[in-house]
Amino acid sequence: MAPGITLDNAVEDFVFTKTAGSEKNHATVTETLDLSSIAWAHCRESSNNFISDFYTKPTLPMLEAIIRTTLDDGDNDEDATTNDLQDYVAGLLGHESALLVPTGTMGNQVSLRTALGNPPHSILCDYRGHIMHFEGGGPSGICGTLVRSVVPANEHHLTLADVQRFATLRNTMYDCPTRVIALENPMEGRILPLSDIQAISNWARERGIHMHLDGARLWEAVAAGAGSLEEIGKCFDSIQVCFTKGLGAPLGSMVIGKKDFIARAKWSRKLLGGGTRASGVIAAPARVAIDDVLFGGKMKAAQDKAQRASELWTELGGKLLERRETNMVWLDYEGSGVDMEGFFKLAKEEYGLKLGGVIPERLVFHYQISDESFEKLCALFRRALAK
Ligand SMILES: Cc1ncc(COP(=O)(O)O)c(C=O)c1O
Fold first, then answer.
1. Does 104 sit in the ligand 1 pocket, CB within 6 Å?
2. Does domain 69-294 have CATH number 3.90.550.10?
3. Which residue, by CA, sits nearest to atom 4 of ligand 1?
4. For residues 198 and 196, what is the distance between their CA atoms, to the nearest angstrom?
5. Where are the alpha helices (DSSP H) in the chain?
6. How many angstroms does the Cα of residue 382 sit away from the middle of ligand 1?
7. Which of 103, 134, 220 gets mutated to test ligand 1 (max ligand atoms within 8 A of its CB)?
8. From ligand 1's centre to the CA of 367, what distance in Å?
9. Residue 365 and residue 27: Cα distance in Å, rounded?
């Protein structure tokens, strides 16, 4: 710990004392900053926010990790904190190598650009895929590829039968052969069963088709018991994971794969401007996030709250659009006879809760939701569903 700096898990009570020598008069300027006045001390601001887990706030232990980090060049593989994190995450997923990137979108696009090579080619993915709808058209703009989006026959997740039906294996002058199968797990809170992933992976690998996973929230699937990171990781040739969202780091994602894939992915990262200099600033808090939130059991505890909320909603006569599987609860307002706008107004004005957002049916749980906010949510449910 640097002299004069006191940081701890408890938030508001600490004092940050900065001492700086003045060149001019050699006097020492001591400035005392109450930590409660800096944004890092305010992760409790997200304690009432059910709109998305990307509202999680970085914490003081993450700031402490940033203070302690190495500050060498990440773009040239010189930063020990970044290299350690890359090795750590690659190992967790049963792979050889990994590459830090600033965002999940870049992680997906770096992976796809690296996997695709020269056209003609196409990507097969679920019709709801993030790469399809929320990445600014990256697959066409950056990769020049055709995206074949598939509606799963079971209305839940892609299976081998879906993939076999829609993959392009023919390779005449008319075709864009399927070069990548891009899965997402969880898919908007829904878990892809490991056995289905394995079946698709075996089939794809026999045909030389690259398997990519958008695992922005893969940690949530693992916390929910959908398989280990390694079991899932081994089914894919590239994986993108985010350190933000439910893990709560300030930024950063990682692409994971074989050594030669990651070596080529560095070119794609460079092309997209994603190499960073003092990358330890990203890597250090990301490590805190994995160890504290995932392995510290906090993600699972947040999912338990999600489960209790979904049970209460149905016990009170409410309907769900679907069953809770990870940290998301999907409320069927219409089917429950609840006016959605009135519900949000009540939540805000009487209970101080933030609900709604671009996907209004969805309540997202994360580890910073406080017990107090959870109790208020239960009270809101009782009031809204009172007969
Ligand atoms: C499934 C999925 N993939 C990728 C991303 C992109 O992550 P980022 O916002 O870091 O670019 C998101 C973001 O919400 C996501 O939900």
1. yes
2. no
3. 104
4. 5
5. 60-68, 80-92, 104-116, 130-133, 138-141, 160-166, 194-206, 218-223, 229-233, 259-271, 280-289, 298-315, 333-336, 340-351, 371-384
6. 33
7. 134
8. 18
9. 50
Q: Domain extents for the chain? A: 69-294, 298-384
Which one, of 112, 50, 62, lies nearest residue 239 by Cα?
112
pLDDT score of 183 more than 90: yes
H-only helix segments in 24-100 = 60-68, 80-92
- The answer to whether the beta carbons of residues 286 and 252 sit under 8 Å apart is yes
> Ligand 1 center to residue 254 CA distance, Å?
12
What length is written for the chain? 387
Domain 298-384 has CATH 3.40.190.10: no
Q: Which residues does 217 contact at the CB level (< 8 Å), separation at least 6?
A: 53, 186, 242, 245, 246, 326, 327
Interhelix angle 80-92/280-289, nearest 10 degrees? 40
Longest Cα separation, the chain: 79
135 lines ligand 1 (CB under 6 A): no
Q: Distance from the CA of 183 to the center of ligand 1, in angstroms?
A: 13
Going by alpha carbons, the residue nearest to atom 2 of ligand 1 is 216
Backbone angles phi, psi at 210, to 5 degrees: -75, 135
CA atoms of 152 and 171, how far apart (whole Å)? 24
Q: pLDDT tens, 248-260?
A: 999 999 999 999 9
pLDDT tens column, 250-293:
999 999 999 999 999 999 999 999 999 999 999 999 999 999 99
Q: With a 6 A CB cut-off, is 214 part of the ligand 1 pocket?
A: yes
pLDDT the model gives residue 334: 97
CA 104–ligand 1 middle distance (angstroms): 5
